[in-house]
Amino acid sequence: MTFLVALGGTTRQNSSTEKALAAACRAAQASGATLRMFDGSYISGLPHYGSSADGNAAGAEMVEAIRKADGVIIASPGYHGSISGMMKNALDYLEDLAQDERPYLDSRPVGLIATAFGHQAAMSTLLTLRTITHALRGWPTPMGAAIRTTAETFDSDGAIIDQSAKFQLDLVGQQVAKAAGRL
User: Fold this and answer.
1) Which CATH class is domain 3-179?
2) Is the pTM of this model over 0.90?
């Protein structure tokens, strides 16, 4: 069975970024993958990587899950045209995989999702995530979702009502699930 790790969110529970990540995860699960999610609540609690507050246990659960993962889905909000600081910090924890036989995100498909209130911030955030994924030796899926979030993107229960966003998120989840283990 294909095992994926999903990573993303904001400090606000049930944020549009977490809703988008959950939608991509549902598509990956419908394609046969099992999944472990590390949401905004988890990643916002991580101390700065490499700081004196960063003990051996900080982030270890996430790092170990990614070590075992066949693929990864990452979602970040666009803050000032780039990824959030807490998302960057969470990705810095992948340095703990540097000496592995399969270092960083090597040979893993990585689905990328960027959410923002504007198109420009969503696109620049997605490009930043692609650059980071390449630096970590991951394989960004052909489809990356740049979601401009509005009041019409999700309903009050978190379901996607914007069909363009749904299409993008479904495709990201499906591509990661289908490519996992094949690289």
Assistant:
1) alpha beta
2) yes
